[in-house]
Amino acid sequence: MQHLTSLIPWNQDDLLGLLALSRRVKADPRAWSTALQGKSLGMIFEKSSTRTRVSFEVGMTQLGGHALFLSKSDIQLGRGETIEDTARVLSRFVDGIMARVYAQDTIERLTVATVPVINGLSDMYHPCQALADLQTVQEHRGALAGQVLTYVGDGNNVAHSLMIAGSRAGMTVRIAHPEGYAPSPEVVAACEGQPGRVELYTDPRVAVTGADAVYTDVWASMGQEAEQAERARTFAPFQVNEALFALAKPDAIFLHCLPAHRGEEVTDGVVDHPRSAVLDQAENRMHAQKALLLHLMGGVPLQAER
Questions:
Q1: Are 96 and 115 in contact (CB under 8 A)?
Q2: Cβ pair 175, 151 in contact under 8 A
Q3: CA atoms 145, 212, 193, 134: torsion sign
Q4: Can you name the residues that pair with 254 across neighbouring β-strands?
Q5: What is the pTM of this model?
Q6: Residue 197's beta-bridge partner residues?
Q7: Contact present, 87 and 110 (Cβ < 8 Å)
Q8: Is 140 a catalytic site residue?
């Protein structure tokens, strides 16, 4: 696994091994403080970010390495240099590339690089977020196998990566979406034959009932601002409010990849609920990504723990 373009190539042992390494890193960060000493990560940002930038940059620092923030306007990619040439040139300077981009095609084209490429977000996948999500479920709910996680909202990149990661970890991932906003059939097919399963619903109440974790995301992602008004009308019945959250198990947790649009996809009463784990989830972005960097850039092997 030289690159992480999506979690589709990962099997259950790969995924559980990465999560086990992340827990070790989180429990004893000082033990890894020089693991990537002298190594650099180039971070390409077509899309702005709080959590992705800070978690990767601080994570590299805590591992003894260095991260370079490269906005599209700061590098020649913004002046017509091809994605492939950018990847090849950066490979001569850095030990890894992380990219947060609009199109999955950009991530795929970056893999001509001779150093590991990490998908920090694309229109199809958000694998680093899913790793942090599963780590958060583990911390609050225990072993992942058999857990029911319900995602309510658009069948987008976050939903796709949750489906892939959850099915490989032995979870049941329920996706509750409005008509016309189902996840990609390609991604649904990639989740078949795994230890867990994916279930699709158009009734959020049915999907949330008895869930161990309830998850939502913004209704309009970056780049979809023109659709905001239409999506607000379509997704209104899919708001995660106190009444919907109450249908989950009494000890269920609430998850959101943030930033949250309070009063739209989620109410204040849920995002600030005592069982909301959104801040743990945000923190775990850094720990999961440190484990990923250690594996891809530092050669640390993965050992699954079930």
A1: yes
A2: yes
A3: negative
A4: 214, 276
A5: 0.96
A6: 172
A7: yes
A8: no
Q: Is 295 a catalytic residue?
A: no
- Please identify which of the residues 129, 135, 138, 194 carries the catalytic annotation: 129
Region class of 298: left (phi > 0), else alpha (psi between -120 and 50), else beta: alpha
Per-residue pLDDT of the chain (306 residues; tens, 9 = 90+): 589 999 999 999 999 999 999 999 999 999 999 999 999 999 999 999 999 999 999 999 999 999 999 998 888 887 789 999 999 999 999 999 999 999 999 999 999 999 999 999 999 999 999 999 999 999 999 999 999 999 999 999 999 999 999 999 999 999 999 999 999 999 999 999 999 999 999 999 999 999 999 999 999 876 677 788 999 999 999 999 999 999 999 999 999 999 999 999 999 999 999 999 999 999 999 999 999 999 999 999 999 887
The dihedral through the CA atoms of 158, 160, 161, 165 has a sign that is positive
Element (H, E) at 279: helix 278-298
Give yes or no: 100 in active site.
Answer: yes
Q: Which residue in the list 285, 287, 289, 295 is annotated as catalytic?
A: 285
| Residues counted in the chain | 306
List 62, 191, 257, 289, catalytic entry: 257
109 in catalytic set: no
Identify whether 205 is a catalytic site residue. Answer: no
| Choice among 100, 141, 177, 256 that is catalytic | 100
Q: Strand ranges (DSSP E) for the chain?
A: 40-45, 66-71, 96-100, 117-121, 148-152, 172-176, 197-201, 213-216, 253-256
**Domains of the chain with bracketed CATH:** 12-126+283-298 (3.40.50.1370), 129-281 (3.40.50.1370)
Q: Which amino acid is at 123?
A: D
Is 217 tagged catalytic?
yes
> Of 207, 109, 225, which is closest to residue 159 (Cα–Cα)?
207
